[in-house]
Amino acid sequence: MDQFENVTVVKKANVYFDGKVTSRTILFPSGEKKTLGIMMPGEYEFGTADKEIMEILAGKLDVLLPGNDEWIAIAGGQAFEVPANASFKMRVSEISDYCCSFIK
């Protein structure tokens, strides 16, 4: 899906890591929530209360998922899942454009 129809966009940006990671929240009539954002090169650790599906639209990064000892290479056009109530690490090597879906 290249675009979202009939959604609400929260104007206030989500800003993390001194502005190196930013996103905007998109709310759907069904109650579904997504964020669209950009990550600059760097190393980051995130926590999530809900299950997440993170689609990397462009860029390159490595991700260390909960319970794994090995980093996984991810590039534009790929996605990964993070379970609820977990944390994960990312090493972003190229500016990365992403869409994160929160699953309740």
| CATH class value | Mainly Beta
Shape: globular
Poorly predicted runs of 5 or more residues:
none
Give the second-level CATH assignment, the architecture. Answer: Sandwich
Number of strands: 11
Taken together, the total number of domains comes to 1
Rg over CA atoms: 13 Å
InterPro entries: Ppnp (IPR009664), RmlC-like_jellyroll (IPR014710), RmlC_Cupin_sf (IPR011051)
EC number: 2.4.2.1, 2.4.2.2
Keywords: Glycosyltransferase, Transferase
Function: Catalyzes the phosphorolysis of diverse nucleosides, yielding D-ribose 1-phosphate and the respective free bases. Can use uridine, adenosine, guanosine, cytidine, thymidine, inosine and xanthosine as substrates. Also catalyzes the reverse reactions.
Structure description:
- This protein is an all-beta fold.
- The chain has a single domain (8-103), classed as Sandwich (Jelly Rolls), CATH 2.60.120.10.
- It is 0% helix and 61% strand.
- The protein has no helices and 11 strands.
- It has strands spanning 8-9, 14-16, 21-27, 33-39, 42-48, 51-58, 60-64, 72-75, 78-82, 86-92, 96-103.
- Strands 1, 2, 3, 4, 6, 9 and 11 form a 7-stranded antiparallel beta sheet that branches.
- The chain is globular, with a radius of gyration of 13 Å.
- The model has no long low-confidence stretch (mean pLDDT 97).
Name its key features.
Jelly Rolls, globular, four-stranded antiparallel beta sheet, 11 strands, seven-stranded antiparallel beta sheet, guanosine phosphorylase activity, mainly beta, EC 2.4.2.1, glycosyltransferase, RmlC-like_jellyroll, 104 residues, thymidine phosphorylase activity
